[in-house]
Design goal:
Layout: H1 3-24, H2 33-43, H3 49-52, H4 54-60, H5 63-86, H6 91-95, H7 97-122, H8 135-147, H9 151-160, H10 167-190, H11 197-220, H12 223-244, H13 248-257, H14 266-279, H15 281-289, H16 298-327, H17 331-340, H18 345-357, H19 363-398
Helix pairs in contact: 1-2, 1-5, 2-15, 5-13, 5-14, 5-15, 7-8, 7-10, 7-16, 8-10, 8-18, 9-10, 11-12, 12-13, 16-17, 16-19, 17-19, 18-19
Length: 399
Amino acid sequence: MNLTEIYLIALTIIFAVPWLVWRIFRTDHWAPLVVVQIVGGILLGPGVLGAVFPDYYAFVFRPDVITALNGVAWWAVMLFVWIAGIELDLSQAWKHRGETGLTAGLALGMPLIAGTLAAAVILQFPGWRGPNGAYWQALLGIGMACAVTALPILVLLIEKLGILRERLGQRILRYASLDDVAIWGVLALILLDWERIGRQGMFLAGFAAAAWSVRWLMARLPEADRWPVGLIWLAICGLAADWSGLHFMVGAFLAGVVLDAHWFGQKAMDRFRDVVLLTIMPVFFLSTGLRTQWEGGGLAVFGVAALLLAAAVGGKLLGVHIAGRLLGWSRTEARLIGWLLQTKALIMIIFANILLDKQVITPTTFTALLLMAVGSTMLTTPLATPLLKRLGDRVKAEA
């Protein structure tokens, strides 16, 4: 069979297997399609499919096929991060800055501390810190991975829960928005390259000037022209950020965060995000699964993942609980917000991919982080749904 035919076999597997599992087993309550696709990527990787059916794995996912898939995956994740940047609305966070700052700070800070302490234990053993990562970079990177909230996935989940446009849903998005900014700021700090500090300074200065020009241009373009200009801007920012020694995904996020969502239209942006998630992001999930390794031993990887999951979940719940006590929330409301902010999935996986690309962490650490992200995201809906119902019943009773 030629390369094209094998490539199409790989695509068929990538799209068909997760969708069939999601549909047949009706996993939406505890594992939305996007989570099933992430798990599917792990199962189709070398650690599972490659171990059980090595000949078949070598035939389908041969190097030239993986190269072709990686090209699609890079563009897919750039588009997704760009959309996340565009949809990041900090105006409401600023309007309610006292409550938002306190909650977001505790919701990020407590799991960051817990994750950093867990990382300090893990990094005492060989095989978890990457060859190009300083101890502090690996420590902070793993800690921040435990603190991440995936804003785009949070939007999808609270939309399914029916509270996206309600006051509670908008509050939760405000908290996650500030955390999103902090995540990318910490990532930029971790990736700061003193040998390329001049390039990075040039990139930031050039980006600031170019962003002002692009905003001036976009405000004056017809809506039909904003999409192609936005995509050109995305590619240029990705290239410039990668050249500077940061990462093309950092450039993609910055390319989106300086644009206004209303320039593209909310409905059009929602449709575009859904199309990206449906058509090309599954290829990114597969490429992520292909990077999982179990060199530290299966039990060690699962043990580390469990430790990180406990730090991530416990830290987030504790942080929101403290915020709730200070702001006078009910215990049910605080627990609900704490569980909804557990969604890590995509943004954490993107964050961990960058750390792996820069060799700050090892593939084994990446695998443990990936398992932690999947676990925390799968816990969100089942544990948040009864709390939301209880909170709704209490509001009705008080009314």
